[in-house]
């Protein structure tokens, strides 16, 4: 690599670092987005370092400690099998975030691919894909997921795949709308005149300029995926015990709500705070990327 190429790489890296630093600075300006950023960061930190933070094995049964109230020894009490609720809550964060990120990743990839094809080629291709979107939107998501799970084993891998495969429609419509707007711009027409292939125009010119709203939608979608997983686990068709999940912890709390309030209270608060954090982060990103609200 010669000096000129090295200089170009350094300039590109410096621009990337500057953009990332500026993005975080803008995100921290708003009180709400600041809270969302730190809540999300805290939940991710807890999930990553759960084995080091957790004081007990989340699946260890101890019949001598059944339904103990919160104390110094057990911060959030114990459940009907004597397991430490605090440890289970921490490991439950791993399940919720894993489901949220993987499911949203699947739905975003599918949505981007179908939305790009639909918006770029239009005509019959657009009509077929949009009718497929309309058909998928006709079914209530939670009932569609429940119907699919009825034929499959209810485990975390199936849950992630099913949530992702039933929630891509919004991303597809969003990407399609961006492509319909951008494909008539001058820089796209110039690329066509220069002889660029459709693949190059889509992936090098249009798609990078349409990802901002997709990032916002994906961030908001993580909260929705966490809620969906919690609802399925609460109904008994999601993540199965003894694997700790906030949803199945709520189910255990429901059975003992009259004598052990903490079993339902803490998982409910964890779901509320986590989903709120991702929603606030998404709103903050929307304010940054939306040109109508962006401050010059």
Account of the protein in words:
With 296 residues, this protein is mostly helical. The chain has one domain: MetI-like fold (Orthogonal Bundle). It has helices at residues 3-27, 31-48, 50-53, 85-121, 123-138, 141-149, 156-165, 169-182, 186-193, 198-209, 211-234, 246-255, 262-289. α11 (211-234) runs parallel beside α12 (246-255). The longest helix has 37 residues, at 85-121.
Layout of strands and helices, then pairs:
Blueprint: H1 3-27, H2 31-48, H3 50-53, H4 85-121, H5 123-138, H6 141-149, H7 156-165, H8 169-182, H9 186-193, H10 198-209, H11 211-234, H12 246-255, H13 262-289
Low-confidence blocks of residues: 2-19
Query: How many strand elements?
Result: 0
Q: What is the count of DSSP helices, taking H or I runs of 4+ residues?
A: 13
Q: What is the CATH topology classification name?
A: MetI-like fold
Largest sheet: none
In a few lines, what is going on in this structure?
This protein has 13 helices and no strands. With 296 residues, it is mostly helical.
Keyphrases for this structure?
296 residues, elongated, MetI-like fold, mainly alpha
């Amino acid at each position: 690599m010669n000096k000129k190429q090295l200089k170009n790489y350094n300039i590109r890296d410096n621009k990337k670092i500057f953009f990332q630093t500026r993005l975080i600075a803008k995100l921290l300006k708003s009180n709400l987005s600041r809270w969302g950023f730190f809540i999300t960061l805290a939940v991710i930190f807890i999930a990553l370092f759960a084995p080091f933070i957790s004081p007990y094995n989340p699946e260890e049964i101890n019949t001598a400690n059944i339904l103990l109230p919160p104390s110094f020894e057990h911060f959030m009490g114990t459940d009907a099998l004597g397991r430490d609720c605090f440890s289970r809550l921490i490991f439950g964060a791993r399940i919720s975030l894993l489901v949220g990120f993987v499911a949203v990743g699947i739905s975003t990839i599918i949505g981007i691919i179908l939305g790009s094809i639909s918006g770029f080629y239009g005509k019959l291709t657009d009509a077929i894909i949009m009718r497929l979107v309309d058909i998928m939107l006709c079914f209530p998501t939670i009932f569609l997921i429940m119907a699919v799970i009825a034929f499959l084993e209810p485990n975390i891998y199936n849950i992630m795949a099913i949530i992702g495969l039933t929630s891509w429609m919004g991303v597809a419509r969003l990407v399609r709308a961006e492509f319909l707007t951008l494909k008539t711009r001058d820089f796209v027409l110039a690329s066509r005149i220069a002889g660029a292939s459709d693949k190059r125009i889509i992936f090098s010119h249009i798609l990078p300029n349409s990802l901002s709203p997709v990032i916002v939608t994906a961030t908001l979608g993580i909260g929705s995926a966490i809620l969906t997983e919690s609802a399925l686990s609460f109904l008994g068709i999601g993540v199965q015990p003894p694997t700790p999940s906030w949803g199945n912890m709520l189910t255990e709390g429901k059975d003992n709500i009259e004598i052990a309030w903490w079993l339902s209270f803490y998982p409910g608060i964890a779901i509320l705070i986590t989903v709120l954090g991702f929603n606030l982060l998404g709103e903050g990103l929307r304010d940054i990327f939306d040109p109508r609200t962006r401050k010059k």
